[in-house]
Amino acid sequence: MIRFECDYAEGAHPKILQKMMETNLEQTPGYGVDVYCESARKKIKELCGNDELDVHFLVGGTQANMTVISSILRPHQGVISANTGHINVHETGAIEATGHKVLTVASADGKITAKQVKEVYEGHWNDVTHEHMVQPGMVYISHPTENGTTYTKPELEALSKVCKECRLPLFMDGARLGYGLKAHGNDLTILDIAALTDIFYIGGTKVGALFGEAVVITNEDLKKDFRYLIKQRGGMLAKGRLLGIQFDVLFNDGLYFELSEHAVNMAMIIKNAFREKGYEFLYDSYTNQQFPIIPDDKLEILSQKYSYSFWEKADERNTAVRFCTSWATREDDVKSLVSDIASL
Amino acid sequence: MIRFECDYAEGAHPKILQKMMETNLEQTPGYGVDVYCESARKKIKELCGNDELDVHFLVGGTQANMTVISSILRPHQGVISANTGHINVHETGAIEATGHKVLTVASADGKITAKQVKEVYEGHWNDVTHEHMVQPGMVYISHPTENGTTYTKPELEALSKVCKECRLPLFMDGARLGYGLKAHGNDLTILDIAALTDIFYIGGTKVGALFGEAVVITNEDLKKDFRYLIKQRGGMLAKGRLLGIQFDVLFNDGLYFELSEHAVNMAMIIKNAFREKGYEFLYDSYTNQQFPIIPDDKLEILSQKYSYSFWEKADERNTAVRFCTSWATREDDVKSLVSDIASL
Amino acid sequence: MIRFECDYAEGAHPKILQKMMETNLEQTPGYGVDVYCESARKKIKELCGNDELDVHFLVGGTQANMTVISSILRPHQGVISANTGHINVHETGAIEATGHKVLTVASADGKITAKQVKEVYEGHWNDVTHEHMVQPGMVYISHPTENGTTYTKPELEALSKVCKECRLPLFMDGARLGYGLKAHGNDLTILDIAALTDIFYIGGTKVGALFGEAVVITNEDLKKDFRYLIKQRGGMLAKGRLLGIQFDVLFNDGLYFELSEHAVNMAMIIKNAFREKGYEFLYDSYTNQQFPIIPDDKLEILSQKYSYSFWEKADERNTAVRFCTSWATREDDVKSLVSDIASL
Amino acid sequence: MIRFECDYAEGAHPKILQKMMETNLEQTPGYGVDVYCESARKKIKELCGNDELDVHFLVGGTQANMTVISSILRPHQGVISANTGHINVHETGAIEATGHKVLTVASADGKITAKQVKEVYEGHWNDVTHEHMVQPGMVYISHPTENGTTYTKPELEALSKVCKECRLPLFMDGARLGYGLKAHGNDLTILDIAALTDIFYIGGTKVGALFGEAVVITNEDLKKDFRYLIKQRGGMLAKGRLLGIQFDVLFNDGLYFELSEHAVNMAMIIKNAFREKGYEFLYDSYTNQQFPIIPDDKLEILSQKYSYSFWEKADERNTAVRFCTSWATREDDVKSLVSDIASL
After folding, report:
1. Nearest CA of chain C to the CA of B121: how many Å?
2. What's the whole-number mean pLDDT along residues B258-275?
3. Is the CB of A99 less than 8 angstroms away from the CB of B101?
4. How far is Cα B306 from Cα B170, in angstroms, rounded to an integer?
5. Which of A201, C253, D151, D239 has the smallest number of Cβ neighbours within 10 A?
């Protein structure tokens, strides 16, 4: 079975394991204040063009989301998110478990617009009973989204502008950030993201690391006591250097971007194969996740050799599924898939 | 200004204040174990035809909802509710503040169906990633709903059946229960409700009391330690007898039902007046809340003399509003309103 | 049985019920924005000598404590309290249920000192692992304490000074505030309290009202969105005027202080009776709660006619108990008790 | 600088890294259902002599503690713990953040007794106001404790018996379990622990792994839906196999015990060196943590070459400190330290 069902099926890029081996018996202080974390922080700050950023390393995405969101909101506030947002559907209520409502806005592709944020904000404050409702307190977006779609620079600028006007911190979940930055047609740089969001994270788990998300805080007001929150939510790794080493290697000589580019290229080849076959796509993605709509009898054939994720029934005879590539996807596997698609 | 904007504009039925006066200097133990609470409990048990019920008196609706829901769910569970449910929109995230997600289902009239509950339940358990999603743990309905609509007996029976099959406790918010029981065309008795739900409450605040909701627990499994939860959520009134006295008076000689009937009758007169004028209604309510859609220029005229609640814009020239009656609504005020409607 | 077991055995001062009767059928807006609440707010602001205060009316003490504390702290912060503090022992973990630890300091009499606060604060920040510990975020005191003791003006000034230095908001639970202000030997005025604390409340439940606590916010930073928090925690009374009316009456012509003085005078008579009998006291209280240590055989005699609260066994043959007076205590009952004490 | 300040200064045992390397590019399903997790589970079940156990792998100790505790307690319940317990002092209020109070009992050495548990339990239920207090809902112990002390088999049997009588699940934090099992004089086996506790965990982070704790659930009632809780609290690692591989290696041919024994042997040598020097110990530990009380001038000398943790001032001229060994401690470093101690 060749796996295309997710982007975390393998371990880590060999350079990361290599570095872990080399440094294994060094003695370092715990909890993320070692030299490897420092080095990784320095590289990330340079990459973001801002030395005043705070950078923290957390183990995973749900942990990062709940730690960030609960560190920002007051008890009566909620977080605006697309209804399809990961925090709304796939984190077992982790946000609610910290006491906060996810305020959803409808989204067809996983993205939300500046206009929607404005409407939620004004809808709240214009309602005479607003004290009886959860107050919008921040905005959550994912980039790329859970559907593989990405924000353009003008879209993110518009969101950022509205958020500033409404005093709503803008938080970007970048669990697959690299795949967004290397998406075909993308016009957003990490410099833009650092400038336009208040807090975001650079996903490692799905982009070459064993695990790990680098949370970057750009808004001065959100920095205070963040390490307490990491500890309280269970995210302070004793051997913090494991996270430092991984991001240090990933941001050495652009490895992170190289790996991201590879995954996107592999995905584009697959996308093309499905397109040439005349299949439609559930979402128009240029990142590592592709959502072709496939006749059920053809899917049956593919499933004998390849794994993928079921997404939804498109109609009685067709199914939308997800094929994922990653930094680790082998070109031979893609070639094999493409050939099998062609002969469906 | 004659107020029809809500059903809590006045104090309490005079008999309640009278009884408070008479008993004012009696010394009783605190926290709801006095003779008045006991007497009220006895009457409610009789009314529900079940001596094994637990009855607790709480101060208000949001308090009752959050105390009940957080007493039942485990941390990873959520409560199924109509998207229009009070817990979802008008309690400032009180449920989420106790750690739980409200799992909404779409509703045009405020009600949810057995089919919807089944779908949410099966949708959850059939999803291979269900452990990444909030598990449905109970069902919340309001009767009458926030839109004045009511469940029929077959509808409640169907809900009850599905809930039992799915092991989801069924909780009825009865903040306006009396107005539902006396709704024109209603076929549900309080005996039915006690038999078909696992826990419900009898609203006092909006039906003749100064304040107070009587929570009735019919499901043995939900009874344990409920008083701890009341205390923890801030709902254990030191002078608990104030609640006991009120419900004792309300359930003396059927006062509660008499007051409810009055409000509904007043509402039906108003409904009729709007209908005769040819106005449509946003919801088809036979309870104390009426939602006529009124041309803006006509509404302007009414608003000089009467208060009501804005509900939503129906279109550019018409607005849906809410007129509420209550146990305290004066016949003369209704006559005056009807006459003014007729001459719009 | 004559009850001295608590200070909430009766209803309310008759003037309060009278006013409720008179205003019963008036129509007012809900949720605390009616004319009675406004009038009561105005009187409290005048009393505190500060027109910029925010005043909110809540139903009970536990509700007030949890609403106030959870509105102030960030998730990683806790509240410093005496180990005997009501929030630490008698609120079923209401504070923890909002996510916060109670950071206790040892107290023999229920009070805490400026020195203790300083020690906790410095102990935290001097510990190199402080990020692994709950950060002190505010200070809770009760006045009078659960043991009937009171802070002197110099003590409160010292606490206030340390709190300001450490940027820890100082919160005073005044569930029995009137009895403290009228304590024999007391040198603290309500003006002092308004000047020296950041937030406090004036207890109504135990001092003449049916129920109700008036939360006074003096610190500008703590005012924002407080009504949302009241609603979320279940404390926003639909018929808010019930609270307004009560405090309006209590602060009319000094009724609150008159009632408080009566209770304290009654308590001093009882204290004196026990003292003359040669009994010791568990706490040296000059407020409405008295804690005599009584030989078990003598207590047996008293218990046939009077109720009191068990506090703790002093030794094998003696028991410390609590006798409470209140605004409603009848002089005849006190005389009877005194006479029976004398003849023990 | 030679580090003895903690037991997480190095990476992992080389065999673990080796296995990660070898399996790095294998594709496995995520979230802990891969073959490595299955294999590790099987070994742990065998070790515990019970095939019906549930075994889950979490990333760290605080995460394990808060996930376990919040999965067991109802909202009004708290967890009994020594005042020195890790959950009470060094987890930034993680337990309170899930809504629960830590009910502390005094402990001189970090252990609690069956008698203490019984007293807390009976103290609660005998108090007439118990509904106003947090209900004891489970018991937390650590073995070895934060002070390096360990429970004897009779002590654990007594605790287990009382817990069963009081229906309080017994939870053992085994972050350093290996070092307890290999403590000199220890009479407890992992079979005993699996039989006597309801849930416990086998610490990996401090005993040879990069990170990871294996939670073992022996009580059938506590198993339900545990994976939801792991996900909600942020502990479900996408690449779950990383945890499986580590524990699979650790429980291959007894590596875990071998590593534990090494650390304890190293600690005993250090203990002996201090003892021969005539120094006292703050706690009488036979595990990998040693707490000698050292004259400040001598400590000054040691600190030029060795790191350790400050524990507390013993008196004006002496300080209690902690020296930790681990699976990674080098014999040469210990020899050097012993020699330097001898010549102090």
Report:
1. 28
2. 98
3. no
4. 38
5. C253
